[in-house]
Every structure is written in structure tokens, then in C-alpha cells.
Specification:
heterodimer, A: 398 residues, alpha/beta, Rossmann fold, 2 domains, seven-stranded mixed β-sheet, five-stranded parallel β-sheet, 12 helices, globular, B: 629 residues, mainly alpha, two-stranded antiparallel ribbon, two-stranded antiparallel sheet, 24 helices, 6 strands, 70% helix
């Protein structure tokens, strides 16, 4: 493997290599399923590129330019770990970031622990990455499955609906979202009844049959965890079959442009969802981000763009605070680290390395033939956590 | 749950069955005549959906919509014809299954092409004009379009059936399905026949994809979702039998609808059973049961002996001097590698992956080449080995060294159980039963959260401290790999190995001279499972974590690709194939954005340049065609 074409390595931010940087750049190794999960990760990559460009234009970090080395993991944990090895040993990156699928996220987290390398898990949602599988080297940016389900449970309890039905993809993400939601809803509203559970194979939902089975259970409300193509199929069948008539729906992630936009004018109305209403957030921080993003790409940002952008922001803030790139200092700097993301102030919790990045909770509507979120509020992730004692029980000591 | 509810669910099942049938019918036709295991069939289905989306964007109204459906089918049919003429036609004389490699490469290319042309966002198509609403059936609203689908499925079956029964072309197709050599000998233009069958099969897949558009968005994952279903339906129905495919599609779709309708039940002895969860694996359960009971599917006949265009395989011979020298030189170089590249080098990491890949490929080759049993679910034994190691280490607290040894047992045990069923079958049915077992193991591991960690898998599976250094683990992996390769090689030149090769070459003759065919095959299967399990164990400790991905179809297919790429008729083929495939994938994936397309194109080039695999081609070039080592 000597003499591999390392020169071809995809390095970001080269265009802005200002002559002012005398020292070698800080290298970030970024591993993701770019091709297998392109709908989320194309915008993610753009968000990252924008943040790198801005950080370097502002003088880099500690006088050094930052540079991202991208690797595609083929949606395969074994390949992801090999790429991580390569980034650490051959590319000499200073830290690792990325991960979309949860099984890849936990594999990389465990690799980071074994190799004593800093890893910022930007996207994987599984609770395991900060709890059962957590370790001091791994931090996670996006709000976890638990947090997002916890943001929706109080809204669901306000509906005062008695009979609930559930539909979710049949793997850990769906299962744990439903389990969290059920537990929190039951605590808030003890008389609630769970009348139907439909666990569907990821990417292969039999939407007609599922919609009918849910309808036959005569629920007052439905909690949905489906996303992407499964969601589109389910929504279309549900609309045709009148499933959503007089039934409230609470739905995870559905307000994210990645999943809402493909539905166009068939987007559901009145669903209570988590998501990212980029068109209606009028904080100065988000405005600045939106303008810069649209100027650079002539396209609007998706949630992936925010996650990619904030990943770089978090790393820049952490490295600045650490004042160095060696792992122990970076790990220590991330404890309690705060930075301003486009959607609000984010802090990495010292007790479990989870960030407090939140999500927008609102209702879906259709406007100008497109699905949008209305009446939304930003829910700060800090407010939707289990108690510190519970976290302590779940998470192995460092 | 009411009776009317079940009845309407049965109607849902009928609608899904139509889609499944359209998808599978083309595959069945293609296999029947050309014997090509067309992995790209799912990609053709996906292309149908995407092309239909583009057309419906431009053509509105009822007429435009249905015209778009038809045009999509035609377009995909044309693509199919092009694939047959430009690619497959050149490799019909290659060893059996080699065409699979070409179609696999096509799936990689199509997947990236779709991303490049249509972008990454899912594309939801329009509803069918005039059929966008619902009708009331038994107090429930049922989509009009689903009713249309229920009619279209049988209609297509009838049309194709008429085409096959009432036209000269159909007679030729049926004749070729039974004995294509004879058809050729009688002066029929085989090329034209093959091209037209492939085009028709592709068009049916394209039509299926297009007609699915009002029900689901065109997305880049459609191909994978479709291809598994297509194979299952074809095999359950019986390869080459269209009515069989229709019955199988009905059976599977109805069982799934029923599972969904049943919902969650409490068991009398406590606990609950969730029927909807079975939809994850329902089709494979059905396939396993059907194949165990009816070895040729519901309506299939025993496969006619295929007199392939490929020359008969030359017997294996022990390594000659040159091969030995090359072998020892390679081994010496590998032993010295850590000293040359340095102990922390990435070359070692990649080499460990390659050793594991080689062990995996060689164990697959053992049953596939000399054994003549095409396993499409070999990842099951890899995964069982990996999980045996991982779980014994984490849950039972076994020392790492012992846990690694137990991976051999894990793989062997799986092969012991599943092999018993599989060796009763042959040809494609054997392949599909191994695939079914692989999927069943996968779904159990995937869902059994408490024990296997579910979809996230098991983490913290690291080697013991004295093996943790990269170069130490490198030598461990190298030693295991060499031991495994030499063991399998030794077995092939033992009396058992000769008996195994005899069972492949002629079941009847081996039976007549007193060889217990199924027993020999079963033992071979277990030996391969054991070696494959070791590969899985090595994998687990090299990555520190395992997840259901280790058992996935994707890994099984990778194994097939490695063996075929190197050359199935040689013993060093799988070694070279695994090394080449893994090295290429790694270096391309790291440096090129559209790396899947690039890898696919490269495999296509290799396929066209070396129809005997890399090693086979080298042998021929050196004029050693008579000795396959």
C-alpha cells in the first residue's frame, strides 16, 4: 500500500488556503455514508464545506488552517472502522467526526475509545452512543432519539387522546423512540391505551396493509417514526384511505426538509412533528447562516446542512478552547463546551457528552404546494434529558 | 380484528402481489432461457420508476400517464437489450454464474448513475389520473389504483402466457428453457432469442417499477429492496414458471398482509408475539419452508441439465514448482511487510482485512468450486463465527483467545444445521435456500436485542492485550489465513476431496461407485462453515465491534464477487480475487466520489478481459490450461 494516491484525497477548504498560515493545517477525518444516505449527507457535506471556508477566512484555529478529509464508509461498520484506522494512521488526522447510521456510530465510538482518539458523532441518533456504549472520547452533536421523543411526548399528552397506535421502522431507532414515547406519555397521562403496534421493515413498508391495520384499531392518535421513502408511502396510502381523518398524528423527524419536501402538496397537515423550518427562523444567527449558504450553493439548507455546519463549528470551538490538538486536551475542552450554532446555543453536557442541540417542534401545513412547519418553537435539548442519576446508571464510568 | 378487516387486507395483498409478480416474471423468463442470475433486475425496476417519474413530469392527463408507463417499460426494455448485446453476449461461454459478476457490477453503476442523474432526494410521482381516489369496500376506503393493479397483474400474466403459448417466438422460448443447446442445433438464431428475452424481461421489470410510482417514491434504495423479493418469488414459484411466480407472489403478499392484520397478540404463557415484525423476514421463511418441502418450488420442474458453452473444467492438480515458488515468495513478502512499512502503518490494517476476505472467499470457493454448491448465503457462517466470538467474550466472559477459537465452532454449527437441509437441493435452489437461511439468521440477530444487541450489534470486542498491537494481530490473521487456505487445499487432494469433486461432476456416477453424495456435500459444507467462522471471528476482533451487517446479503454477494473475479476454476482464484476486490474497493472509495460506479466499471472491464477470472486468464496466457492449481 505504499505510494497510494494520497494526493487525490478529498481535501476541503483548499481554495481558501490563505498565505497567512505558516503551520501545517489541522486535519479532521470525516467518515460518512455519503453515497448510501445521499439525501441527508449531500446537504451535510455542503454545510461542512461552508463552515470550513468561514473558519479559515476568519483566521483558522490557533493560527492553523483546518482541513477535512472525507471518507465514504459504504454504510458498513467494518469499512468505517478501517477508514478510521486509515485516517488516524496514514492521513494523521487530529480527530474524527461523522457517522450517519447508528451501528456505525457505536462502532466508531468504541474505536475511538480503544485508540484513544477524539470522535465527534455528528448524526447517529441512538441513545447507546452516549449511554451504554458511551466513553470519554466520544461526544455526540445531534439530539438523541430519547431527546426527540421526549420533546414530542408533552405535546402528545396535551392532546388528551386515549387510544394510541404506533408505526415505526423495525430496528433500534424505531423501537427505542416508541419505548421512550410510551413511557413518557404513560407517566404524563396514566389512562392512555396502546392499541396497535406496527413495526415495518426499513425501506420496505407494506403501506396499504399497515395503514388499514392502524385504521382498524380505531386509534384516537398515531405516533409515527417512519421516515424517507417509507414515510412517503405511508402518507400517500393514509391520505387515500382516510386514515388521518379525525386522528391526531405525532411524528418524529417529519418536519425535516429531507423528508417533508418530497411529499410536496401531499404533505400531511396538522401533524405534530420535530423538524427544521429553515424558511421561518428569524434569529440573526440563522439569517447569517441562511444567507451565506444560499449565496454559496443557490439552494436552501436541509437539516443535514445544519448538522454538518455545526459539526465544524463545534470542533473549531473545542480546538480553540483546548489550544492544542492532542486528544486529552480536546476531550477535556469538550466537557461543558459551548458554541453558537445557527439554531441556538449548544453545550456539550459534562455528564454524558451529549450536546444540548435542540429541535423545532411544530405542526405541519401545506403552503404554496409545499409542506411546511407552522406554530413551531425551538426546544432546547437541555430540557429533555433523563435525570442525572438515571444517566449515571446507564453510562459506564469513564 | 373483524372478518371484513381480514378480507380487505387480502385485497391489499392482491395489489402487492401484482407488483411482485411484474418484478419477478421478467427475472423468471430471463433465467429460464439464458440461465443468467440477473442481479441487475432490481436496478432495472428502479430505472423504470425513475424514468416514469421523469416522463410523468412532462406528460400530464390520463393519456399521458399511461403512455409514460408504457414508454418507461419500453425504455427499460431497450436498456436490457443493450446490456445483453454489449455485455452478456460476450461472456455466455464463461463458467457458470460468471454472468452474475457482470450484473452485480451493473447494479453498482446504475446506483451511482441514478444519484448523478436524478439527485439524492426521493421523487414522489403523481397519482394515476382518474384513479387517484378511493372506493368504499366493506366500510373501508380502498385506493382505486390498487384495484387497477389487482387487474393489471393477472392481465400481464395472461398476455405473456399467450405470447409464450400462441406464437412461434414463444415456442422457441419454451424450447430454449428446456434445452437451449438443442434449439441452437436446430438452426434457431440464439443471439436474437436471448436478446429479445432479456429485453422482454427488462421491460416487465421497468413496467413494474413504473406502475409502482403512484404508490411509492422513486428512491435510490429501490433496487436492493426489489431484488431480494424478485428472487424469492421466482424460486418459490419454481424457476422459469410464470404461473408459479404468480402463485408465489400471491402467497407471499397475502402472508405479509395477514401478519400486519394480526398485530400483536398476548401469549397464554405470558409475553406477547408481534406478527408485523415477521414481515422483515416473511418471504425468506416462506422460501425456506417451500424449498424444504418442494425442492423445485411450487410449480417448477427439476432443472434440466445445462450443457453450457463453457468447456468442461479441467481437474485440479497439486501446485507445480512455479506456483510453489510464487506462494512462498508471497508469504515471505507478507511476513516481512510489518518490518518494511512500519508497525503502525495502514498497509497492515488493510492487509488484515484482505486476509479475512481471503479466508472468507476460500471457504466459499471450497463449496462453490470443487463442491459445485453455489452458496448465496455464506455470510451467515461468517456472522455466526463473529457473533460466537463477540458474545462469548462479552456475555460469557471467555478469554479472547478461546472466544476466537469458538468462532470456528460457531460457523461449523450453523453449517451443520443449515447444510443438512441445503444438500438435499441442487443448483439455483440450493443457492436460494442458503440465501434464505442467511436472511433468517440475519433477521434473528437483527431483532434479538437482549442477546445480540439488535441492529446496533456488540461493541468492545477487542483482542487480548498481547495481540492488540497492529503488527501482532497482523501475524495472527496471516497465520490463520495461511492455515485455513492450506487446510482446505490439503482436504481437496485427500480422498475426501476427490470424492467431493466426483459428486460435483456427476452425482449419478459417484452414487454408483458408492459415494454417499449428500453426506460428502454436507461434510464439505460444515468444513467451509468452520473456516468461514474463523474469518468472522478474526473480523470481530480486528474491528472491535460487530453488527448484523456481518450476516447481510451484501457480504454474501461480496464473497461471490471475490471468488468469481479471481476465477472459480482455480484454487488460487479466490485468493487473488479477494485481494484484488478489497484493494480496489478501498483505494477507489478513498479517492473518487462516485466510487461505486468506478468500481462497477472496473469489474466490467475485468469481466470482459478475463472471462475465466484473473487467475484463469493468467494460466491461459502462460499456456497452462491443462493444470489448474
Amino acid at each position: 500500500m505504499k505510494g497510494t494516491k494520497r494526493a487525490l484525497a478529498l481535501a476541503l477548504g483548499l481554495a481558501l488556503a490563505a498565505p497567512a498560515f505558516a503551520q501545517a493545517p489541522i486535519r479532521i477525518g470525516e467518515i460518512n455514508s455519503y453515497k448510501a444516505q445521499a439525501a441527508f449527507l449531500d446537504p451535510y457535506r455542503k454545510g461542512m464545506e461552508l463552515a470550513v471556508e468561514q473558519a479559515n477566512a476568519a483566521g483558522g484555529v490557533n493560527g492553523r488552517r483546518i482541513e477535512v478529509v472525507l471518507r465514504d464508509d459504504n454504510a458498513n461498520p467494518g469499512d468505517a472502522v478501517r477508514m478510521a484506522e486509515e485516517l488516524v494512521s496514514a492521513e494523521k488526522v487530529d480527530l474524527l467526526a461523522g457517522g450517519f447510521l447508528s451501528n456505525i456510530g457505536v462502532a466508531l465510538a468504541d474505536f475511538a475509545k480503544q485508540r484513544k482518539t477524539f470522535y465527534l458523532a455528528s448524526e447517529p441518533l441512538t441513545n447507546k452512543i452516549v449511554w451504554e456504549g458511551g466513553n470519554r472520547y466520544t461526544y455526540r452533536l445531534r439530539p438523541s432519539t430519547y431527546m426527540q421523543a421526549a420533546m414530542l411526548a408533552p405535546e402528545a399528552a396535551k392532546l388528551k387522546k386515549k387510544r394510541w397506535a404506533f408505526v415505526y421502522p423495525n430496528y433500534e431507532y424505531g423501537q427505542s423512540a416508541v419505548a421512550t414515547f410510551k413511557a413518557l406519555l404513560k407517566a404524563a397521562q396514566p389512562d392512555v391505551e396502546f392499541v396497535s403496534d406496527q413495526a415495518t421493515p426499513l425501506g420496505k413498508i407494506d403501506a396499504g396493509a399497515v395503514a388499514q391495520a392502524l385504521g382498524d384499531a380505531k386509534p384516537d392518535a398515531i405516533f409515527n417514526v417512519l421516515f424517507a421513502a417509507d414515510l412517503a408511502k405511508f402518507v400517500r396510502e393514509g391520505n387515500t384511505r382516510g386514515l388521518f381523518k379525525d386522528v391526531s398524528v405525532v411524528s418524529l423527524l417529519t418536519g425535516e426538509p429531507e423528508y417533508l419536501d418530497p411529499l410536496k402538496d401531499e404533505a400531511p397537515t396538522g401533524w405534530i412533528v420535530t423538524g427544521y423550518p429553515w424558511y421561518a427562523i428569524d434569529t440573526p444567527a440563522h439569517k447569517a447562516f441562511l444567507d451565506a449558504y444560499q449565496k454559496k450553493y443557490s439552494d436552501y439548507p436541509r437539516l443535514g446542512s445544519i448538522v454538518g455546519y455545526s459539526t465544524i463549528q463545534a470542533i473549531v470551538a473545542g480546538l480553540k478552547k483546548a489550544g492544542a490538538t492532542d486528544t486529552d486536551k480536546v476531550v477535556a475542552a469538550f466537557k461543558g463546551l459551548e458554541f453558537d450554532s445557527p439554531i441556538g446555543k449548544v453545550k456539550f453536557r459534562p455528564q454524558d457528552n451529549q450536546s444540548t442541540m435542540g429541535a423545532y417542534v411544530g405542526r405541519t401545513a401545506v403552503k404554496d404546494g409545499k409542506g411546511v412547519m407552522v406554530d413551531f418553537v425551538y426546544r432546547d435539548g437541555a430540557d429533555f434529558q433523563p435525570s442525572d442519576e438515571d444517566v449515571k446508571k446507564l453510562r459506564p464510568a469513564d | 380484528m373483524s372478518l371484513s378487516g381480514i378480507l380487505v387486507q387480502m385485497l391489499n395483498g392482491l395489489a402487492s402481489a401484482s407488483t411482485l409478480f411484474l418484478l419477478a416474471s421478467g427475472l423468471s423468463l430471463i433465467f429460464g432461457v439464458t440461465r443468467i442470475v440477473n442481479f441487475a433486475h432490481g436496478s432495472l425496476f428502479m430505472l423504470g420508476a425513475y424514468i416514469a417519474w421523469s416522463l410523468t413530469e412532462r406528460m400530464s392527463g390520463a393519456l399521458g400517464f399511461w403512455a409514460a408507463m408504457g414508454l418507461s417499460a419500453l425504455a427499460v426494455g431497450a436498456i436490457g437489450a443493450a446490456i445483453e448485446m454489449l455485455l452478456l453476449r460476450r461472456i455466455y461461454r464463461a463458467p457458470e454464474l460468471f454472468q452474475l459478476l457482470a450484473t452485480f457490477a451493473l447494479t453498482l453503476v446504475v446506483r451511482d448513475a441514478v444519484l448523478g442523474v436524478w439527485g439524492s432526494e426521493d421523487l414522489l410521482g403523481p397519482r394515476a389520473p382518474g384513479l387517484s381516489g378511493s372506493v368504499e369496500i366493506l366500510g373501508r376506503r380502498f385506493p382505486q389504483y390498487d384495484l387497477a393493479l389487482i387487474v393489471i397483474g393477472p392481465l400481464v400474466l395472461a398476455l405473456v402466457w399467450l405470447l409464450l403459448r400462441r406464437t412461434r417466438w414463444g415456442a422457441l422460448v419454451r424450447a430454449a428453457t428446456q434445452d437451449r443447446e438443442m434449439v441452437g442445433a436446430l438452426g434457431v438464431n440464439q443471439s436474437l432469442l436471448f436478446t429479445s428475452v432479456f429485453a422482454l424481461g427488462a421491460a416487465l421489470a421497468g413496467l413494474g417499477g413504473a406502475l409502482q410510482l403512484p404508490r411509492e417514491p422513486a428512491s435510490a434504495g429501490l433496487d436492493l429492496a426489489a431484488i431480494g423479493d424478485a428472487f424469492v418469488v421466482v424460486v418459490v414459484g419454481g424457476m422459469g414458471s410464470l404461473p408459479g411466480a404468480f402463485v408465489a407472489a400471491l402467497l407471499i403478499a397475502e402472508i405479509k398482509a395477514l401478519c400486519i392484520a394480526l398485530g400483536t397478540w398476548s401469549l397464554p404463557w405470558g409475553g406477547t408475539i408481534s406478527f408485523p415484525k415477521f414481515t422483515l423476514v416473511a418471504e425468506f421463511l416462506v422460501m425456506a419452508i417451500v424449498l424444504v418441502v418442494r425442492p423445485w418450488g411450487l410449480m417448477g420442474k427439476p432443472q434440466a441439465a445445462v450443457r453450457t458453452g463453457a468447456p468442461p473444467e479441467t481437474p485440479l492438480a497439486p501446485a507445480d514448482a512455479t506456483t510453489r515458488i510464487i506462494g512462498f515468495a508471497t508469504l515471505g513478502a507478507l511476513a516481512a511487510l510489518p518490518l518494511i512499512v512500519g508497525v503502525g502503518s495502514y498497509a497492515l490494517v488493510l492487509s488484515i482485512d484482505i486476509f479475512i476476505g481471503v479466508l472468507f472467499a476460500v471457504s466459499l470457493h471450497f463449496v462453490m468450486g470443487p463442491g459445485g454448491m453455489h452458496s448465496f448465503g455464506h455470510a451467515a457462517y461468517f456472522g455466526l463465527g463473529a457473533y460466537a466470538s463477540g458474545l462469548l467474550l462479552k456475555s460469557a466472559g471467555l478469554p479472547m483467545e478461546l472466544a476466537l477459537v469458538m468462532s470456528i465452532l460457531g460457523g461449523a454449527l450453523g453449517a451443520f444445521v443449515f447444510g443438512w437441509f441445503c444438500v438435499r437441493l441442487s443448483g439455483v435452489y440450493f443457492a436460494m435456500l442458503t440465501l434464505a437461511f442467511g436472511q433468517i439468521v440475519w433477521s434473528v440477530v437483527f431483532q434479538w436485542d437482549e442477546v445480540t444487541g439488535g441492529s446496533n450489534g456488540v461493541i468492545g470486542v477487542w483482542p487480548a492485550p498481547w495481540l492488540a498491537a497492529k503488527q501482532t494481530y497482523y501475524y495472527l490473521a496471516l497465520a490463520c489465513c495461511v492455515a485455513g487456505v492450506l487446510l482446505l487445499r490439503r482436504i481437496l487432494f485427500s480422498p475426501f476431496g476427490y470424492a467431493l469433486r466426483a459428486t460435483r461432476d456427476s452425482v449419478l456416477r459417484s452414487d454408483a461407485i458408492g459415494i454417499d453424495v449428500q453426506r460428502i456435500q454436507w461434510i464439505a459444507f460444515i468444513v467451509a462453515g468452520a473456516v468461514c467462522g474463523l474469518a468472522g471471528g478474526l473480523f470481530a476482533f480486528s474491528k472491535g465491534s460487530i453488527s448484523p451487517e456481518t450476516i447481510s446479503v451484501g457480504r454474501s454477494i461480496d464473497g461471490l464477487v471475490m471468488v468469481l473475479l479471481g476465477g472459480v476454476e482455480t484454487l488460487s482464484g479466490p485468493i487473488v480475487g479477494a485481494a484484488a476486490f478489497l484493494f480496489l474497493q478501498d483505494s477507489i472509495a478513498r479517492h473518487i466520489e462516485y466510487w461505486r460506479a468506478m468500481l462497477g466499471l472496473l469489474i466490467l472491464v475485468l469481466v470482459l478481459a478475463f472471462p475465466d477470472g484473473i487467475v484463469g486468464a493468467v494460466r491461459k496466457r502462460l499456456g497452462k490450461g491443462s493444470q489448474q492449481t
